[in-house]
Design a protein that fits this description.
By secondary structure, the protein is of the alpha/beta class. The protein has nine helices and six strands. Helix content is 47%, strand content 13%. The protein is globular, with a radius of gyration of 17 Å.
Length: 214
């Protein structure tokens, strides 16, 4: 929260076009709403992601409703085993703009986890058109971003959400343990080489610009 406020005080041209702040998992509903209020006037503030782990994959539904009513984004940070639970918790919040962080945040990329991950993505994609998938953070669980390894994960996300609800992102500095920044974008480019220019433009820029109001 303090970082969001500090960034918001920076002059134009010296801050990101959009900032995702946070709410603390241990906060009561009243405290969480106060945290949203503190960040509301920060320049570029667009929404929140969890700062730490909630008891479940989502904060209290009243916090989610407040995000919806304020036109803010909620970023889901949940492991594959929690994705279906997250999908159930989002039912009835059709107008809440949601971004699934790190393509569902797999931990190992093994076959068993991948099956759970696939079901979870399907459940979240089925919640409604306001739920999006940020394809990022895959270098750590996969141990590589070689196109042959990365491609099936990207294709699964695209199959579940559609190209209009996915976008690419980095997870630096964590990704830097496995790939350079240029190498990351080269990998994304390689696995989408067969897609048309309009789809690639959406995945690399347009969808994120729309979701975050950039």
């Amino acid at each position: 929260i303090d970082e969001t406020l500090e960034i918001g005080r920076r002059p134009d041209g010296d801050r990101p076009d959009a900032v995702i702040g946070g709410v603390t998992p241990t906060a009561s509903v009243t405290e969480a709403l106060e945290q949203l209020d503190r960040q509301a006037d920060a320049a570029g503030f667009r929404g929140v992601r969890p700062m730490g782990r909630f008891a479940g994959p989502l904060p209290h539904v009243d916090v989610l409703r407040a995000l919806r009513d304020r036109g803010l984004v909620f970023e889901v940070l949940a492991r594959p085993a929690q994705l279906e639970e997250a999908a159930r918790g989002l039912e009835g919040l059709d107008d809440l703009v949601v971004v699934v962080e790190h393509a569902g945040w797999p931990a190992t990329g093994d076959d068993d986890e991948r099956a759970v991950w696939r079901r979870g993505l399907r459940a979240l994609a089925g919640v409604g058109p306001a739920v999006h998938c940020k394809i990022s953070g895959l270098a750590a669980p996969l141990g590589t971003l070689a196109p042959a390894t990365l491609r099936p994960w990207v294709e699964e996300a695209l199959d579940q959400f559609g190209a209009d609800r996915c976008f690419f992102a980095s997870n630096f500095p964590v990704d830097g343990l496995h790939v350079t920044l240029d190498g990351l974008w080269d990998a994304y480019s390689a696995v989408t080489a067969d897609l048309g220019p309009a789809v690639r433009d959406a995945l690399f820029a347009g969808n994120a610009e729309r979701v975050y109001g950039i």
